[in-house]
Amino acid sequence: MKRGASGGVAKNREPRAVGKTVKASRSEMAEVVLPADTNPLGKLLGGHVMHLVDVAAAMAASRHSNSYVVTASVDSIDFRNPINVGELVILKSQVNRVFNTSMEVGVKVFSENTLTDERRHTTTAYVTFVALDEFTRRPKRVPPLIVRTGEETRRWREAGERRKVRLALCFKKRARD
Ligand SMILES: CC(C)(COP(=O)(O)OP(=O)(O)OC[C@H]1O[C@@H](n2cnc3c(N)ncnc32)[C@H](O)[C@@H]1OP(=O)(O)O)[C@@H](O)C(=O)NCCC(=O)NCCS
After folding, report:
1. Does residue 132 sit in helix, strand or coil?
2. For 31-75, how does the pLDDT look when each residue is reduced to its tens digit (9 = 90+)?
3. Is 158 helix (H, G, I), strand (E, B) or coil?
4. Ligand 1 atom showing the smallest separation from residue 128 Cα
5. How far apart are CA 173 and CA 167, in angstroms?
6. Cα–Cα distance between 28 and 173 in angstroms, integer?
7. What would the DSSP string read from start to end of 31-55?
8. Where are the domains of the chain?
9. CATH topology for 20-176?
10. How far apart are CA 79 and CA 81, in angstroms?
11. What is the per-residue pLDDT across 104-161, written as a single tens digit (0 to 9) for each?
12. Is the confidence at residue 91, as pLDDT, over 60?
């Protein structure tokens, strides 16, 4: 039988109405850039960065929703700086905004040279996840997001603007299909 965080028996499979903070979703992962994941110039492959972005974003989305999540879309990704073999690649993710069954997660990627302590911001990405009901595998509502700081409010506002563009492109594509 399913039990809530407080230990009580969940009445149904609807998500809790109680909101969760942005901080609760915050996630971080890091790995050493190994030669197998680099191009002939010793730079981390873009495809590997995209894979790590998806994984780091999924951590934040599933932490917020306490659900299985699937990637619905990934906004464009710019690679501002390369990450070299031997450096650390560090990813930080957090939920920016919750809609109904979907969430936008922001991911920042950094490189760190452990010999010099130099850390550089290399990539920012926005990934949309949909929470799925564990039994029906259909989209389910996710808890509201509690936005506290000015920075979180800015991200929340900007996520709304990005959603408009994202869905416009998505629906145009569907109409053409
Ligand atoms: C994402 C998916 C669950 C949406 O299912 P659906 O039946 O189209 O569901 P709905 O139309 O009810 O949309 C559900 C939510 O997804 C959002 N969504 C759907 N397609 C989207 C897209 N391309 N970009 C952003 N959001 C999208 C909708 O806006 C809606 O969000 P909201 O409830 O917060 O308003 C479904 O398309 C799917 O399973 N896709 C494959 C996912 C996958 O395999 N990912 C890679 C591996 S994890």
Report:
1. strand
2. 999 999 999 999 999 999 999 999 999 999 999 999 999 999 999
3. helix
4. 25
5. 10
6. 33
7. EE--GGGB-TTSBBPHHHHHHHHHH
8. 20-176
9. Thiol Ester Dehydrase; Chain A (3.10.129)
10. 6
11. 999 999 999 999 999 999 999 999 999 999 999 999 999 999 999 999 999 999 999 9
12. yes
What pTM value is reported for the model? 0.90
What is the spatial distance between Cα 93 and Cα 104, in angstroms, rounded to a whole number? 10
Q: How far is the CA of 131 from the centre of ligand 1 (A)?
A: 9
Q: Please tell me the distance from the alpha carbon of residue 165 to that of residue 144, in angstroms, as a whole number.
A: 22
Nearest C-alpha neighbor of 160 from the set 110, 98, 114: 98
- Nearest ligand 1 atom to the CA of 100 is 34
Atom of ligand 1 nearest to the CA of 73: 24
Residue nearest atom 46 of ligand 1, based on CA coordinates: 71
CA atoms of 116 and 43, how far apart (whole Å) = 18
Q: Tell me, what amino acid is at 150? A: G
Round to whole Å and give the CA distance between 105 and 96.
5
